[in-house]
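testing teh design pipeline on a random one, pls ignore if ur not involved
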């Protein structure tokens, strides 16, 4: 009997939906005939005893999830997500570079270093990319350190704050849209599609507004109701990163689709999989056949 480890970090387990998703994943894996253990950071020494590892905690090269992924890889244990995917997706300069190399459709994107943070360069960016601009700090996640700026003064206020955290910042063309497509991809194949409706008082799927966190609406969408080019773009973008589990965020504007980012090991706990009841079954099967 195969043994699946589900890696969980209490520090990033923040709501009942996440807990219910973990329990559902465990129950499905056990129903498929596997033994399942939840592995917390204190139990990391148990990973070599597993036959597969599914990380269900926030991934970042600077935290324990990366150690867990590296440990699994070292022992030849299939793992989602793998260390390489974590390294790429946690650094937006790295991630966008992979997408650009594969000619994936993106908003116009520029990487700006501290030495090029000048009035002349920023003026050129507004001329080339339009207004407003999106400015991102490369290690951002969950829409943190992503800002929309309308003028040069606003750009410098944001950029000077971000450049303290990174040698580079990402500057992108703003794509108007009230929702994002999220295309879930596993091993190069479609896993699910959902629509994230952006709250009316922000441009992000998650933001702090007047001191309160506001979240996007989530709607699972059957594949026959999704523009085929959106699905194709999501799969192509995921394949530009690797063969793991990814959530590709896409904006569809006037018929044109643009990848906003690729998330490794995306969340599946807010109804993303309502139209796709076999999501966890497919993930478990993938882990044990990789």
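output:
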């Amino acid at each position: 009997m195969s043994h699946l480890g589900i890696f969980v970090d209490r520090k990033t387990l923040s709501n009942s939906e996440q807990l219910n998703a973990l329990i559902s994943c465990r129950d499905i894996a056990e129903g498929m005939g596997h033994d399942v253990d939840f592995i917390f950071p204190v139990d990391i020494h148990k990973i070599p005893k597993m036959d597969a590892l599914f990380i269900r905690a926030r991934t970042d090269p600077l935290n324990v999830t990366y150690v867990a992924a590296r440990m699994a890889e070292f022992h030849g244990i299939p793992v989602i997500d793998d260390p390489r995917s974590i390294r790429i997706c946690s650094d937006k300069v790295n991630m966008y570079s992979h997408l650009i190399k594969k000619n994936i459709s993106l908003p116009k994107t520029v990487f700006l270093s501290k030495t090029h943070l000048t009035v002349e360069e920023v003026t050129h960016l507004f001329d080339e990319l339009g207004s407003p601009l999106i400015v991102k700090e490369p290690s951002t996640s969950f829409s943190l350190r992503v800002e929309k700026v309308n003028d040069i003064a606003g750009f410098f206020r944001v950029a000077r704050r971000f450049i303290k955290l990174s040698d580079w910042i990402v500057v992108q063309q703003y794509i108007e849209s009230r929702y994002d497509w999220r295309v879930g991809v596993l091993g190069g194949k479609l896993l699910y599609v959902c629509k994230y409706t952006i709250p009316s008082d922000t441009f992000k799927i998650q933001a702090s507004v007047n001191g309160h966190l506001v979240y996007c609406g989530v709607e699972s969408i059957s594949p026959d109701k999704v523009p085929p080019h959106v699905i194709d773009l999501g799969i192509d973008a995921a394949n530009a990163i690797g063969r793991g589990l990814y959530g590709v965020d896409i904006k569809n504007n006037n018929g044109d689709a643009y990848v906003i980012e690729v998330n490794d090991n995306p969340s599946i706990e807010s109804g993303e999989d309502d139209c796709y009841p076999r999501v966890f079954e497919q993930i478990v099967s993938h882990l044990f056949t990789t």
